[in-house]
Amino acid sequence: MISSISKILAVGAAGKFAGLVVPALAERGAKVRGLVWDAGQGEAVRKSGATEIAIGDLRDRASLDSALKGVDAVFYIAPAFLPDEADIGARETSEFLKMTTTALALPGTMPRTRALKE
Hints:
Blueprint: E1 7-11, H1 18-27, E2 31-36, H2 42-47, E3 52-55, H3 61-68, E4 73-76, H4 85-99, E5 102-105
Parallel strand pairs: 1-2, 1-4, 2-3, 4-5
């Protein structure tokens, strides 16, 4: 599957779980754009294998639109610290699927949405 995807946006690339996904994707030849909310996290995410860094916030539609430009897939694991994560996850996963060919998500994190577009 990765061979047909040229660029993957990893949401929360500096986080506990997505931070493990970035190097795994890079090792498999994917170009990874790491989405972080703090610019200071960018260098660490690059060192873990991201080829690009996007600064954004899940509550800021414009920053997400910018991060999504030119990506073919999105890897999203819901951040546990957001009290309104279910609403954000449902909305953003729907948007990710409109703007990319594939959205990958940790099963069970967004019960009201489809985690994978076929």
